[in-house]
Amino acid sequence: MSSPPRTEQQSGLRARKKAKTRRAIQDHAMRLFGEQGYDSTTIEQIAEAAEVSPSTFFRYFPTKEDVVIQDDYDPMLAAAFLAQPASLHPLTAMRGALKEVFELAFEQDRATIVQRIRLIWSIPSLRSRQMEGQVATVTMLTAAIAERTGRSVDDFEVRVFAGAVTGAWISAIQRWIESDCQESLLDLLDEVMDFLQKGMPI
């Protein structure tokens, strides 16, 4: 097999370097937040710890809040959802995708996930920014559901489906926080998805 063109190799190298820098910034930010508190940590301190300039920080994260809020789970979830067997109902496929993505995420980064979610729920500016992010999540889910079902992204029912799923996830995370992260988030996510799938009997 011939080697990929040099431009493809360079592109892959650049992407890996950017991902490494992005992760380094987030890792140092979370460490500093844990050591001295979110409000007492400056962007300049994070940049210095990650050995980048403040302008580089802003190329990766538009705001200080985004260094906590942003993660890679939405595209991973969309890919896992679309990869589920075509015969499955969309909610069943979503449950399978959630299990696949978050089992892996918790295996690799449980402590960081717990720290991020606790920060988000305890700091008003982060909660506000997170709610903005939920709109992007609904948009992402709408596109994935439309692709899987062959319906339009403008289909109102597709949007409602995506909104209901996202709202259910928020409820699961809130319950998890209220339990001081002692309950299983994976079990709570599956429980709310099961409730949706049963037609939300009240």
Account of the protein in words:
- Residues 19-79 form the HTH tetR-type domain.
- This is TetR family transcriptional regulator.
- With 202 residues, the protein is mainly alpha-helical.
- It has two domains: 6-62, Homeodomain-like (Arc Repressor Mutant, subunit A, Orthogonal Bundle), CATH 1.10.10; 71-197, Tetracycline Repressor, domain 2 (Orthogonal Bundle).
- 77% of the residues lie in helices and 0% in strands.
- It is built from nine helices and no strands.
- The protein is globular.
- The termini are far apart.
* Helix-strand category: mainly alpha
Q: Mind telling me the CATH superfamily name of the largest domain?
A: Tetracycline Repressor, domain 2
The tally of structural domains comes to 2
CATH architecture field of the largest domain: Orthogonal Bundle
Which parts are unreliable, with pLDDT below 50 for 5 consecutive residues or more?
Answer: none
General shape = globular
Could you tell me the mean pLDDT? 91
Percentage of residues in DSSP E strands: under 5%
Look at the structure and give the CATH class of the largest domain: Mainly Alpha
Order of helices and strands: HHHHHHHHH
Helical content (DSSP H or I, runs of 4+): over 70%
- The helix tally amounts to 9
Q: Compute the number of strand runs.
A: 0
According to CATH, what is the topology of the largest domain? Tetracycline Repressor, domain 2
Largest sheet: none
